[in-house]
Amino acid sequence: MQRGPGRPAQGNRFPVNEMGLNVIMMGPPGAGKGTQAGRLARERGLLKISTGDILREAIREGDPVAVEAKARMDRGELVDDETMITIVTNRLLRPDARRGFVLDGFPRTVAQAEALDRIVTERKNGPLIVVDVEVPQHELVRRLAMRRICVKCGVNADPFGSAETCPKCGGGLEQRTDDNDEVVLDRLNVYKRATTPVLEYYRERPTFRVVNGAQAPERVAHELDTMIDDAAGAQRV
After folding, report:
1. Per-residue pLDDT tens over the stretch 47-88
2. Which residues are catalytic?
3. Count of domains in the chain?
4. Closest to 51 in 3D by CA, of 89, 19, 22
C-alpha cells in the first residue's frame, strides 16, 4: 500500500546505505549558516534541507500536515514538534537524501533533536555532525542591518555579496524595513533563548564543532570543511 504524503512510513523506514554524512548547521540570524550549508551540500553531493523550503514544497504537493502547519503560522501560532518532526522525517525518506543531508533550521527544540537522533540511527548512513557558527553580537547587528531580500521570492541575499538581483529567481533586492537595531537585537535574543537547550544537548558529543563565523566566507568554508572531516573521522574510528 502506498504511503500517504502526510504520514511517515512505519517499521524499517530507512534503507541501510553506504556511509554518508549528516550535518546540522546552527547559528543565529546573520551568521551565514545558510550560505555555508548550501555550499557544503553542493560540494559534497548532499541534500540541503531548510524547514522553510520543505514546508513550501510540502504545501505545493498538498501534504495535509504541511497545509495545517501553514494555517497555524498564518494565525500567528507556533508549529508543534510533532508536526515538524513528521515533515522532516517524510523528506528524509526520499531517495535524494540517502547520501546524507545538511540541515538548516532543524532541530529547534530538544524534542526535535531527540527525534533526529532516532532517524539518523535508523538510517545507518553516517554520523550526525553538529556545527555551531558563532559570530559576535555587534557583527550580527551590522550584517542584519545591511541584509537584503528578494522582492519576488523572499530569499535572503548574501550580505557580503554585491549582486543586484536574487541568485535564486532573478528578482530585485531591497533592504528589510524591520531590520533596525532594536528589532534585530530582539530577534537575536529570541534565537538564543530557543536554541541554547539544543546546543547544550549536543555540546559534549565528539561530533560537535564550533566555527568562527566572523571571518571571511572563504575562511569559514575552509575551517568548516576541516572540522567536518575531523568529526567524521573521529566518529568512525
Report:
1. 999 888 888 888 888 888 888 888 877 776 778 899 889 989
2. 33, 108, 147, 176, 187
3. 1
4. 89
